[in-house]
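Hello forum,

I keep getting stuck at the same step: I have a sequence, I want structure tokens, and every attempt I make locally crashes halfway through. Rather than fight my setup again tonight, could one of you with a working pipeline run this one for me? It's a single chain of 232 residues.
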Amino acid sequence: MAMNTKNVVLRLSNSSNLKTAASSVLNVKIDPGVALITSTDAAEVDFEVLGFTTGMRVRINSADNTGVYTIGALTTVELTMKDSTVTMTQDLTTALSMTGYDMEPIGEIVSIDGPSGSVNVIDITHLGSTARTKLVGIQDEGQVSMEVWTNLATSTGFNQWKLRDFRQSGLAGFYDICFTDFTQSATSEPSAYFFEAYVTNYSISAALDDAVKSAISLEISSVAHFIDGVNW
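Reply #2:
Ran it on my machine without issues. Output:
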């Protein structure tokens, strides 16, 4: 069934609200059928003290777990991930480091276009070829563009202002686009894209008898991770 665009949201997490943890006491466990990130020493790594919360996106340095995951529940020593064992693998041997991204909505978005990923085609045909022979080059995840009703006064509008600051400072931010196949709850999470990007354009337009609009462009500078929706 097609997804409705109602309640599709684009969210931002910037460098000021990232949470990090790194230690040999961290590991990834599958217990059974549930993916967990655990700390075997709360005195060294306490997830609550460090500021991790439910709903955060998480990335870890495990070679077996290279995706982006979502915290469904937590204690001082355990993060329960919404992602199933299909997308996470047990890793008890690596000294792990992890980053949590606290996502905040960008308010009053009218439309979103992208990611618009593509890949270059490299022609390696030679005189002995019987047909065109080709390779593909490095993935380019492209751009995301959005149009918003300009609102710089409220808490969600403040995130529009952050994008303007990012355009001026040249700093990258982390973003996700959440769809509507599942609801966001303790036991479910909609499909989403997660990526790092730079703001390359922020333009404001005003016309007679109309609301003020802003057009914003993001240049993706990482893999656009697709996060499968889950519903326990």
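The chain has two domains: 12-103, 105-231. If your local run keeps crashing, start a new thread with the error log.
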